Amino acid sequence: MNTVYQCVLCPICGSKTRLRIREDTMPENFPLHCPKCKHETLINIRQLNSSVIKEPDAKTQSPVTMRFCGPLVFA
Q1: What is the pLDDT of residue 75?
Q2: pLDDT at 14 (0 to 100)
Q3: Which residues neighbour 45 within 8 Å (Cβ) at sequence distance 6 or greater?
Q4: Whole-number Å distance between alpha carbons of 22 and 3
């Protein structure tokens, strides 16, 4: 049985983070840390679809979509 993982990309700079997720991964209010730009962002992930949680004191901004790198298949 092959398990497909995807890397989560940073919503700020677009580089790969150290987080890999599967289709059934469902973290809520997860603090995503980017080792490149050193930003930490709260995210929710449901069935490989993720959304950025905006903090209440943040200025109004356009929505940020999360990007994933290609699928990684492990046997």
Answers
A1: 54
A2: 86
A3: 8, 21, 25, 26, 27, 30, 66
A4: 8
Q: How far apart are CA 69 and CA 52, in angstroms?
A: 17
Q: What's the one-letter identity of residue 31?
A: P
CA gap 47, 25 in Å, rounded: 7
Give me the pLDDT at residue 71, please: 66
Alpha-carbon distance 70 to 36, whole Å?
A: 19
The pLDDT score that the predictor gives to residue 1 is 56
- Spatial separation of the C-alpha atoms in residues 30 and 60, rounded to whole Å: 21
Distance from C-alpha of 63 to C-alpha of 29, rounded to nearest angstrom:
17
**Residues 6 or more apart whose Cβ sits within 8 Å of residue 15:** 9, 34, 36, 37
Give every residue of the chain whose pLDDT is below 70, as ranges. Answer: 1, 49, 55-75
